[in-house]
């Protein structure tokens, strides 16, 4: 009788282990600190680098790509640095807002605040339609001054119905150091 109880217990434990493995509770979905010069933030550890050396012109400001990342869960992160020393975080968000409207997008909010690390962040949230597949893309644009005297733009974006995008935005915003 005792060996039957042991076999039953082993069977139950095996079932629990199998259910946990299948549910994804054991996945490596941890977080990682990404550092680029004086700027660092925490994001999911499964972000992949995309090769990008583009420049974006917004008004009189030229923005160079510092980092361009994506992941299989549909989250994208783009870190830009203003080449023009007169660029301001507030002006960057206003420029982004104008660009969104010019491209028939919708600005959902614009705000500024200080994150837990003392970084003053100007933020805009907008949605635009992706012309290639008509999906709605939600953009969280953050602009801030770095300790090196430069102005940075950080964008977290992905399909608007993807909760991973908002979760990553919160993680990046709260962990950002400049």
Structural account:
The protein is an alpha+beta fold. The chain has a single domain (28-175), classed as Protein Transport Mog1p, Chain A (3-Layer(aba) Sandwich). It contains 3 helices and 10 strands. The strands form 2 sheets. Strands 3, 4, 5, 6, 7, 8, 9 and 10 form an 8-stranded antiparallel sheet that branches.
Total E-strand runs? 10
Distance between the termini: 65 Å
Task: Supply the CATH architecture.
Answer: 3-Layer(aba) Sandwich
The structural class is alpha+beta
What integer value in Å does the Rg equal? 21 Å
Which shape, going by the Cα principal axes?
A: globular
Helices and strands, in order, run as HEEEEEEHEEEEH
Strand content: 35-45%
Mean of pLDDT = 83
Count of individual domains: 1
Q: Which residues sit in consecutive blocks of at least 5 with pLDDT less than 50?
A: 6-27
């Amino acid at each position: 009788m005792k060996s039957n109880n042991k076999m039953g217990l082993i069977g139950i434990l095996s079932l629990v282990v199998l259910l946990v493995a299948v549910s994804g509770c054991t996945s490596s979905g941890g977080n990682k600190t990404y550092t680029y010069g004086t700027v660092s933030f925490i994001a999911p550890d499964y972000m992949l680098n995309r090769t990008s050396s583009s420049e974006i012109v917004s008004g009189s400001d030229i923005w160079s790509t510092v980092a361009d990342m994506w992941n299989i869960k549909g989250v994208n992160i783009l870190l830009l640095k203003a080449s023009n020393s007169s660029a301001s975080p507030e002006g960057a968000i206003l420029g982004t807002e104008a660009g969104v409207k010019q491209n028939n997008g919708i600005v959902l909010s614009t705000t500024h605040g200080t994150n837990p690390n003392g970084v003053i962040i100007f933020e805009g949230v907008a949605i635009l339609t992706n012309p290639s597949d008509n999906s709605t893309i939600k953009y969280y644009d953050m602009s801030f001054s770095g300790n090196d005297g430069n102005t940075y733009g950080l964008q977290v974006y992905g399909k608007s119905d993807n909760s991973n995008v908002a979760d990553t935005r919160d993680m990046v915003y709260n962990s950002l150091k400049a």
